[in-house]
Amino acid sequence: MPHAPAHRLFLAACLAAHLPLAAQQADTTRPWNVGLAQDVTHYTNALNGSSGSEVSDTVWTTTLSGGLNVPFGRQRAFANGSVSHTRYSDLDGLDGQGYSLGAGVDWSTIGNLSGSLLVNAGRRQADFNTGVSTATLKNNETYQEARARALLGGVGLLGIEGTLGWRRVDFSAPEFDSREYEQGSGSAGVIYRPSSALSLGTGLSVQYSDYDVPAFGQSQPDTSTRRDVYVTADWGATGASTVGTRLNFGKTDYKRPNADDFSGVTGNIYWNWRPTGRTTLTTVLSRETGQESGFQSLVNAGRTRLTATDFSRVTNLFALSANYELTGKIVLTGALTYARRSLVDSISGRDGSDNTTATSLGANWAATRIITVGCKVGHETRSASGFGSTDYSGSNFGCMGSVTLN
Predict the structure, then answer these.
(1) pLDDT surpasses 80 at 187
(2) Is domain 6-405 annotated with CATH 2.40.160?
(3) Which of 12, 174, 350, 381 is the 20 to 30 Å CA partner of 127?
């Protein structure tokens, strides 16, 4: 998506998506797939400009995608990738290419040792109107990410879990140089399964981020350290309802004097519910620092990584989505998100906030086994106060078509 404000990362928290993290949920009966999709969407406020500065435009996005999903023995290897070209009808200076790549392995040994390895990379047009750039800025956001997880036990009452992670975020626009960083992370914890329907966990996690260049007002590049005690729970309440949560209790400290220091509770709660055979509802509540908001991994909630340009001190979110199978070939979709961001200038300490609400309705028709077409409409509005954000409002409507072979 070439035009996706920072908070729309939460909209995808409620939708099944096709980006790399979703590879972990791929259908194991399909060893390969290749697809071509065309999306045409008109935006009444293409750059999320404030009142009086709106610019409308139509955006054409062509995407070529493919994937592999190969089980072998007790293991499974998978890979997904896509390349896209985005063209604006009028704002042709924003035309560009993007990509999304992901690959990984789920593994297990003869004993009770199992785990996964996942790598991701991507490039996209960064969000407009983040509060740190002009609304017309062309800015390619690039990321690389690797994660490893190992679990000892897991089939019995107790399990021991460890993770390691690495991430790199870059931007093409020099205005974002101080936001570029490299991060290492790790965690260790215990999982307790009192029943087949309930899994509980607790542990410690750490993150260390190293920024490339000094921010405005700083003489040297900054670093940050985050330490958390976390608790998790996953509960299959019924065959039609699943609830999960991860809560973090900790703090983030910056080496240089920085108003972004944060201490408190973060985390997320999701609820997947299928009230009828045709209806699926997903609800997500989230509270997270801006740097981490775009990289939350709510895989069970259909969550995928979308953006690295949420620069809030903390973002609170409510998101609700619904899918209704009108017929065996037609699916109706709807979504509502509300996000409140707390913003702060890292040097001066000036603060602000904004509230963003987005709604969407759509329909998809599986015309044949390989051809799908669909249309959607949406509206988004933001109200801001204080430092770091501006009001805006805009609507969008568009259609897409795709051909997938598998």
Answers:
(1) yes
(2) yes
(3) 350
